Amino acid sequence: MKKSAILFFAFMLCMAYSLSAQVYIDPTLEIEAKALNYKMDAAPTIDGDGSEWASIPWQTLYFNDKDFNGDNLSDPFPGRIDYVSKFKAGWVDGSNVLYLLINIQDDQFITADSINWYNSDGLEIRVDPFDQEAAGEPGENPSSAFNIGFRVGINEASGVEGTAPSGYEAKWVVNENSFPKTAQLEVAITLDATATLQNLYNMGFYLYCSDNDINQDDSQKDKDAATVIWPQLYNGLNGERIGVDAVWSNTYFWGNLECVSQTVHNVSGSIQASLDAASEGDIVVIPAGQYTENITISTPNIIVMADGDVSITPAVASEPVITIANDDAAYGVTIKNITLEGINNDSTNAAAGIVIGSASARILGNTFNGFDSPILKGSVDSTKAFACVFEDNKSYLGNGGISFNTSGTVIRYNYSEEQQGSYAINVKGTQPGTAIDIAYNTIFNHRGECGIGYGGSATFTIHHNMNIRSESLYGAGDTSGDDGFENQDKGGSTDYIYNNTIVGWKSDGMQMGNGESNFYVRNNLIAHCSGKDYDIRTVASTDIDYGLSFANGTNNIATLGTVAIVEDPLFTNELEDDFTITDGSPAVDAGQIEPFGFKVRFVGNAPDIGAFETGTPVTDVDSKNLGEIPSNYSLSQNYPNPFNPTTTINFSLPETGIVTLKIFNVLGQEVATLVNGNLGIGNHQINFDASKLSSGVYMYTIQAGDFTATKKMMLMK
Fold first, then answer.
1. Closest to 471 measured CA to CA, from 580, 576, 587, 554
2. CA distance linking residue 634 with residue 637, whole number of Å
């Protein structure tokens, strides 16, 4: 289990021991808690810039844990303008050194504390070189396991527990001038001399990054966020879910970090042929172009990504464009930045974009045009396909959106426009004792049922969503669309709903009922809905306060909460579909700070009511973002999107050259030139101020050498 080149007898002994202490992320105890350690050709220089890590993919730390409300479930993690962390792990064949590159983005860094180093922003790395520990503080039993901690910006370890590593070298690079601020640690940790790293070597591993923003008073509540690797943890010994909250009770359960040899497969013909040739940890790169295939992914932990503008049309419209195998056979698959085209020649929609039957899928930055089901769970029950992440996907001119009833799921930063049929986001029938986070999504002009339909027995955090039907729809008496949010599932969920903007639905803003669910609701803005702002039916309990309701059929907020506003929210420009709020809005600074103990970043004296926070800082050009040398040209989706009036565009250059970045309106007319000149290698960031433009859809195009890319953005004033 520890090394590939060991005797069979020793292997069986180790396997028997490991299984007794194994940790899983799924309730059927099939998917081990594992991250990947990628082979490097040579040891990197520990200078903090990450320039030698370009070929190794980032692994994002997603799940926050502070459990302010004591429900023994992971709390929702903050938005990207506040706190994000990710890491890369590397090894050199025959060495006993673990290399890590860890990147943190935050709105502020707390770097000094006189009480306890845990109260500073930083991270803790737990390593068990021979995979001996099951749980507990390192060193409680004789072993080589240890914890090593680092404060942001301090190159010396802030603390070591257990058996100290044989040595380490660390270097931070901190950028306090960007927003969010960035801090990157490159570290080499020397393990026990007999820990010879080679392919498939496993070591115990746990990593979390801690964000501290409040009082620095040595209390648990001061730990606002602690992003970690695994979304859910199960103890293989007894099948009991222990959850990431175990980190605060000093019961540390270890996952594995497995050494793999990475291969990059550049598609030259059939995408399926490259997928069939891939092994665990490999990357399949699809060159720019148009492809007609139905593909199936059956290998775990591979990354499928576009190099340039890639579109795939199904060869058989009744079959999914991409299928991730059922029964968790292909866990940990990532699909990034691909356009899936589903509209057939007869103008009908294709069946499905991506169908997922395995755990820990990462569906990131893809575009879906004309599908009956853009993203769909496969034909497995809700104990399978656990803990998937859907971020930055866009769906247009189809039916439904993301339909996924498996727990441990994260649905964030997705955009849905002019979808018909069912829900834009649909998460129902979930299991008890698990968590779902639905946040920062934009649903615009949905013409099906509800914007977000959800329920079951899980705990839901639904926050910072823009759920908008335009004035041209609700003002014209359009009868499509039902409720903004709807929970009619009888599973008895626990629902934390806060800081959402819901406008223009033909029935209610939020409908709650037909079950034994508990609703905790704060800081929501509901306007122009034909029915009620809050339609409360059969429920176990409701706790609704700090809301603004306006021009709904019935404004119940006035009697539901002690802090209730029934006033015009003063949207920036409803007639041009800009439902952000102005500085003079009664929603500004009117929300509850830390609703239910959840961290909400805000500008001013308190959070604004609704999904849009006024006064968000912006940045100018920053050509040193992350300090990593890219391996390919890329143009990222602007953020935020929709925006008003500023947004940030990131792009990457693997070589120095002349670059132009221009903005065009929908008629193809150039309206702005953001970049026109020579830029160096690196990751570049530029802020675009559209205050002089009218609301609408715009395109931005980059030209760098032979590379050209175009993306769409929406200005909503």
1. 576
2. 10
